[in-house]
Amino acid sequence: MTEVIVVDPLRPDPAAIVRAAACLRRGGLVAFPTETVYGLGAHALDRAAVARVFEAKGRPGSDPLIVHVAALEDATPLVTRMPDAARALAARFWPGPLTLVLARAAIVPAEVTAGLDTVAIRVPAHPVARALLDAARLPVAAPSANLFSRPSPTRAAHVIEDLEGRIDMVLDAGPTPVGVESTVLDLTQDPPVVLRPGAVPLEALRAVVPSVRLRSSHAPAGGAMPSPGLLERHYAPWTPMTLYDGDPAQSRAALLQAVTDALAAGRRVGLLTTSEQAHRFRHLPVVIAELGSERDAAQIAARLYAALRELDAAQLDMIVAQSPEADEGLWRAIRDRLRRAATRVVGSRQ
Ligand code: TXA
Ligand code: MG
Fold first, then answer.
1. Using CA atoms in the order 1, 23, 76, 10, what is the torsion angle rounded to 10 degrees?
2. Which residue of 32, 39, 70, 122 has the fewest CB atoms within a 10 Å radius of its CB?
3. Is there an atom of ligand 1 within 6 Å of 306 CB?
4. Chosen CATH of 3-214 out of 3.40.120.10, 2.40.50.140, 3.90.870.10, 3.40.50.2300
5. Closest Cα partner for 144 from 59, 21, 80?
6. Which of 32, 37, 59, 66 to mutate to test the pocket of ligand 1 (most atoms within 8 A of CB)?
7. Tens digits of residue pLDDT in 4-54
């Protein structure tokens, strides 16, 4: 049985936090909210606890976990070197949705990092995550608390949907405010490389470290996977999803045509769209999941995974979505997650 404990997102009950921290110290699995998505926490220095995380998620052991700590000082024993860029970025963005990949110290079990000699570390900002880390006084390894390759959970109900009976406890503090995962930045390379676009935009990183670059979208032929979370299909609903990208007018027309054809063929269609575009489809028998205004990236990010799960639960034959036009700031992460959720992308703007 998985115990669900409801806590206030800003001022969680200390007794609940103490119990969750004790569970982590004993090697248990506790799902908790971060500002991005819910994480599935385990004692990062306890090999058996870490193994349970992979088992509960059905996650391949080749995909490394992020280690969460309460403050920069707690990160230093976990790495062999803390570069100046890491200190500058931590000073600006921690606590917050930035994950730094650094050289791993021997105390971090190889199971956490999938055998890599690097370790990903972040200091989360959510008051519940902070309270838990303060109480546990441990580094906490935590991937997103979903089954492998499903959309990340932004509500406790999503965690339960995927992991009920497989984990000890969920701290339910309501929806997570940001909705897309942290930005993963590799500082063991020079210049530093964004391995996963996320909640901290590239532009903001460059304001602190101007040389930061984006990883090229094509993995080196035959090379090792630089960040296994970059698996092409990820964060995905079970229902096949087609993403329309490229020129906005063209992709809108192509999407409308595809929906019309599918309905004519008797297929059940779900549509992931913005408030501005939804009206074009209201006359059609499609299930519409509205993300929010196309002028509000934060709102769309916050709704994205919940909307994917709603459509997935609606017994549909297919989902169609149109990629947002914008590509700066938080839009980069939204576009990235939509591409990974899609089984097929029509039109491209690389
Ligand atoms: O916002 C987040 O980052 C959430 C919350 C819970 O903190 N966590 C999260 O964890 O998204 P997960 O495991 O779902 O994604 C971690 C990503 C994966 O893409 C993984 O490959 C990458 O970080 N990663 C972890 N350790 C790494 C390492 N040593 N080198 C390169 N990439 C690493
Ligand atoms: Mg994940």
1. 80
2. 70
3. no
4. 3.90.870.10
5. 59
6. 66
7. 999 999 999 999 999 999 999 999 999 999 999 999 999 999 999 999 999
